[in-house]
Task: inverse folding
């Protein structure tokens, strides 16, 4: 649950915090009036404005502001090599490759898949290599 101490070292000049289990509201002094900010608390305890949640950008640094969003597709979801990348749902199955792992175009939803079988992968590499060599020999002659 969120508490008034959920955002350590941020908003030091806050006057008041209204807390419930969904969001924090900080009331800060601002030029003879008060400025109200609704904040999202990240899993790493960083706080960001709510308009930055589900905006296709990892604003928290730990991606917790993009985790439960339904407006995007996550590229590199199963990769430990690459950081996840978020693209709009309209970019999935649009015949344009947006993800380095090709997952936005080659998946069950798009009815297209990459070769998954190890034997077929090796066979296609060997055939491609042989085709390149034979084409090169034909050009030379």
Result:
């Amino acid at each position: 649950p969120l508490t008034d101490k959920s955002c350590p070292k941020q908003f030091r000049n806050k006057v008041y915090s209204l807390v419930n289990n969904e969001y924090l509201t900080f009331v800060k002094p601002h030029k003879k009036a008060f400025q109200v900010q609704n904040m999202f608390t990240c899993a790493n305890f960083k706080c960001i404005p709510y308009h930055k949640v589900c905006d296709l950008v990892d604003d928290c640094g730990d991606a917790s502001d993009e985790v439960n969003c339904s407006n995007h597709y996550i590229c590199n979801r199963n990769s430990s090599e690459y950081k996840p990348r978020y693209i709009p749902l309209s970019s999935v199955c649009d015949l344009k490759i947006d993800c380095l792992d090709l997952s936005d175009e080659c998946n069950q939803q798009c009815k297209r898949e990459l070769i998954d079988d190890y034997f077929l992968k090796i066979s296609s590499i060997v055939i491609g290599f042989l085709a390149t060599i034979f084409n090169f020999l034909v050009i030379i002659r």
About this structure: The mean pLDDT is 77. The beta strands are 16-19, 24-30, 33-41, 47-49, 72-75, 85-88.
